[in-house]
Write a structure and sequence with these properties.
By secondary structure, this protein is of the alpha+beta class.
Length: about 220
């Protein structure tokens, strides 16, 4: 028998897209207990289908849909998000917490710190986690959209940017972004060697990703 390899569980829809879906159908969102098919109807689908399953899964992983013994219910935080204006500081605080609720995203935050790690860094990490190679670009795309949203909100509202101290094995580049006027990106190349780059002025997520990609692809700086 041929066994098909599957990637570990991960959000298949980004947090920004998941919240957008909730807002679009906010008039139907309540806290009654429903079966999964009814939940799918409430967010605009014909039922539990191939189209609705990714968003239903992401609602659960981001803590917006509770799994109960007798069914499913939109969580308190889901209704709270719908009541708040996107310009509210409280909204930003909730989103920056939800962004790291999925287990995979917590692991990445704990290992690399807050911010958006570079593509090669994430690819190496996901391969170590035994993700199917063909799925990795899609996993990274969804993850980057989610992390970028959280990073932008932390920066806009000057929210705390402390995170667990990253622990990176030799040969893996670490990219940790802190908020504030002077941003830092640390690259740990090997034991006892650490390079810190300080930015002055405006730092964008895109610039951090480009720098990380350059670092990983430039043979002069690679560690084998």
């Amino acid at each position: 028998m041929v066994k098909f390899r599957r990637s570990p569980n991960y959000p298949r829809v980004s947090l920004p897209r998941t919240i957008k879906r909730l807002r679009k159908y906010s008039s139907a969102i309540d806290q009654q207990v429903w079966n999964e098919d009814a939940i799918a109807h409430k967010i605009g689908y014909s039922g539990v289908t191939g189209a609705s399953m990714p968003i239903l899964s992401s609602l659960k992983k981001f803590g917006l849909l509770e799994v109960l013994e007798d069914g499913f219910r939109f969580s308190d935080v889901a209704l709270q998000i719908l009541r708040l204006n996107e310009s509210d500081r409280q909204y930003a605080e909730i989103i920056t917490e939800l962004a790291y609720k999925p287990e995979l995203y917590r692991q990445i935050r704990d290992r690399f710190g807050l911010g958006v790690p570079g593509t090669e860094v994430l690819s190496d990490f996901l391969r170590q986690k035994e993700f199917v190679p063909d799925s990795i670009p899609r996993v990274i795309k969804v993850l980057v959209q989610t992390f970028a949203m959280a990073s932008a909100l932390r920066e806009r509202y000057d929210l705390p940017s402390e995170s667990p101290t990253p622990s990176v094995p030799n040969g893996i580049v670490e990219a940790a972004v802190a908020s504030g006027s002077a941003e830092k990106v640390g690259f740990k190349l090997a034991e006892g060697i650490e390079i810190v780059i300080r930015f002055t002025g405006t730092l964008t997520t895109d610039s951090v990703m480009k720098l990380t990609d350059f670092w990983n692809h430039n043979e002069r700086f690679r560690v084998e």
